[in-house]
Amino acid sequence: MTAEEIQAIFFAECEESLEAAEQGLAACRDGTQDSDTVNAVFRAVHSIKGGAGAFGYIALQGFTHTFETLLSDVRDGTVPITEPLIDLMLGGLDTLSDHVTAARDSGEPPEDAALQAEMTAAMAANAGAAPAAPVAAAPPPPAPAPEPEKAEVADSSGDDFDFDFDLDALLDDISDDMAPAAVAPEARWQVRVRPHAAAMRNGSEPLLMLREMSELGGVCELCDISSIPPLDGFDVGTGYLGWAFSFPASVGEDAVRDIFDFVGDDCSLAFGAQADMPQVQYPEPPVPIAPVATAPIAVPVAAPVAAMVQSPASAVPAPVEAPLAPDPELARTGSAPPAPPAPGQSIRIELGKLDKLIDAVGELVIAQAMMAQRLADQGLAVAEDMTMIEGLTRDIQESAMAIRAQPIGSVFSRVPRILRELASSTGKHVKLEVSGETTELDKTVIERLGEPLTHLIRNAVDHGIEQADERIAAGKPAEGTLTLSAEHRSGRILIRIGDDGKGIDRERVFAKAVEKGLISPDTVMSKEEIDLLIFAPGFSTAQTVTNVSGRGVGMDVVRQNVKDLGGRITIDSEPGKGTTFTLTLPLTLAISDGMVVNVGDQTLVVPLANVVESLRPEPNEVQGLGASRCMINVRGRFIPVIPLSQSVGAAGACTDPRDGVLIVVETEGAGRAALLVDAICDQRQVVIKSLDTHYRSVEGVAGATILGDGRVALIVDVDSLVSRSLASAGGNSPLAEAA
Amino acid sequence: MSSVTPSITLPARCDRAAAEALLPEMIAALGSGPLRIDARECQHIGQAMLQLLVSARQTGEGAVIEPSQTLRDVAQLTGLGEELFSGIHA
């Protein structure tokens, strides 16, 4: 594993930690302030700190250190959890998130001096205000001498940073000079640490943990080198060392355990002076090096034996000697002590590998369809076998897609931060209600969902939700509510972003659209059509351009993003009650349901997402309009008929709607239209191949797929095709060049 | 005994990769007297190199290590000061 890969894992874990911390703090704010919750936040921040130190991100490490110290006080109950404190910690989390981003992108770390000062003040204020606190809480029996000094420093200097550093210096004092004199030897307790043999292969560097222990006041009493083989049997990737460290009684066992959080089950710990050194744990199967392999239960070090260090020359043969009989007690204490967490329930996979798998599965689906078609052409009756293969192929495909699926919660979890930032810039406090956050969809979709979602939320808070006084006047609670929900519906995912604000002011939107020249003043528009105007490029009703919104790029971009994802966006707004945006998205971008149609000598695929219905028109339902256009009356509503053959340039296609089949499609930009095709052949899942990567982008074409008979069929981009065709009545053939 | 004491110089960054590279050199130098290891440039050291040094000290005729301050600090931290630099070999 390279350093880059390990770093990538670290950052992935940072994301998880940040999410966990966010959840923990949210729970705190909602009243769940038990030790588990606080501990979860502490651990999250702590594990980021551990990694930051390991990879040398100084700024990140510095900030997490301050944050962690505050959290440690909170955890120990020396700093009470109050509303302002939670806000402070949430602010800290936001900055921490920025720090992580800066570290990952090698960017400039955020300005955090003021926040750090505030955090330090939160701890210092407590220490100064309640000198009796340590006595009251009093978990460490011999309250160490530095306590009064601490208060003194806080009082005298008033500079929070000095205070912080002095504390560190004091800690050093404890471990270096004062330890032998002030703290009696019996006041120290011991822990034995044994990184597993394969820990270094997993990317951990045990010495970093040792350094942290030392910073905590730990002193190395003993290093077990008995497992180290001579050079000719030496394996660089195997860890051979174990240590015994002693700590002053004022340091808790938990603090030491926390250090090892980051390495998970790569390390055995044994607490207590009587505990034995945990045995070296080898991965299975054991490393195939003779002296190492013989020593899996090797040479346990009795507690006070410092002997292994005294005579290196004589120690040489020790590791190769016959292994001691496994002592049952040793075996118990050796491998069991702090019950390492259960082996991981998940693994991390490089995304590229997964994409390859999905690609291969796509090819498999195509190959299977081709074979089925060929067998059918030959008139071979192997229906049963084919059905089985088809079923299996579909299973594999679903499982492969499921691997890429992620809960949408990872996107939703960013929302609280967005709301906090909006609250500080707009003064509107918004309550968030989330449901369906476990709904899963493809990772690619998730990744590209963040931006449109952010825009919609900003829009909802900035334009939708009113100021508190306005809300109260309207008989609503002062605090606005933003509702986020996600659910699966017939193979697609529905995401709703709703606010309880003032709704869309349609008169103003209409006036603004006229003013911008988007529509003429005498246009007759339905309520829904007016609502859709807010997606027009350059449209904004905001009186002033704020840094939140008002530049008129947001909603346009939102619609484009959603469209790029193969989805649709609809608005449901009620004046005075609020607005809900509904995003309908495909679960994946790799496979789509499509209707396979024939147009002359061409076969095309119309995405099912756009299809409303298909029909064979009665002669009297179709009405000509001018020379070449016609409309069809569908239950009293006239919609334009667009012959697909015109766009494709297909030869021999039927041109009279009465001879063919009409597929009624719904589009974002141009409402409904009816596509005229010769026949509908099939409705099936198609594996989408990008035309951009294999050829070039062609307007009106969303991609291509390979049909069962090996032919390539273009997938129609219904939106652009319809708007283009309607714009240039009887227009040119965008598809013809690609076909 | 060869007349020239075999000598190996450690790089500034003594990580696992460095240990990987030096192990064959150390094995090749076995049998020609105590190994001289120049670690005066060493600015960073990980467990892999640390235990390799211990192994080198224990193998054959041992090794003499000239440490940098960093290496001394790490040895102190890990309780290996005596083991790595004790007078018998120095």
Please give the alpha-carbon distance between the first and last residues of chain A. 46 Å
Largest sheet of chain A: 6 strands, mixed
Biggest sheet architecture of chain B: 3 strands, parallel
Beta-strand percentage of chain A?
15-25%
Average pLDDT over all residues of chain B: 84
Counted beta strands of chain B: 5
Descriptive notes:
The complex is a heterodimer of chains A (739) and B (90). Chain A has 25 helices and 22 strands. Chain A is α+β, with helices and mostly antiparallel strands. Chain A has a six-stranded mixed β-sheet with strand order 14-18-19-17-16-15. Chain A has a five-stranded mixed β-sheet with strand order 6-8-9-11-10. A five-stranded mixed β-sheet of chain A has the order 20-12-13-22-21. Chain A is flat and about 100 Å long. The two termini of chain A are 46 Å apart. Chain B is α/β, with parallel strands linked by helices. Chain B has one domain (7-85). Chain B has a three-stranded parallel β-sheet with strand order 1-3-5. A two-stranded parallel sheet of chain B has the order 2-4. The longest helix of chain B is centred in the first third of the chain and has 13 residues, at 16-28. Chain B starts with 6 loop residues before the first strand and ends in a 5-residue tail after the last helix. The mean pLDDT of chain B is 84. The chains are: A alpha+beta (739), B alpha/beta (90). The A-B interface holds A 195, 200, 205-207, 210-211, 214, 220-223, 225, 228-232, 234, 236-237, 239-241, 243, 309-310, 312-313, 315-316 and B 16, 19-20, 23, 26-27, 30, 45-48, 50-52, 54-60, 62, 74, 77-80, 82-83, 86, 88.
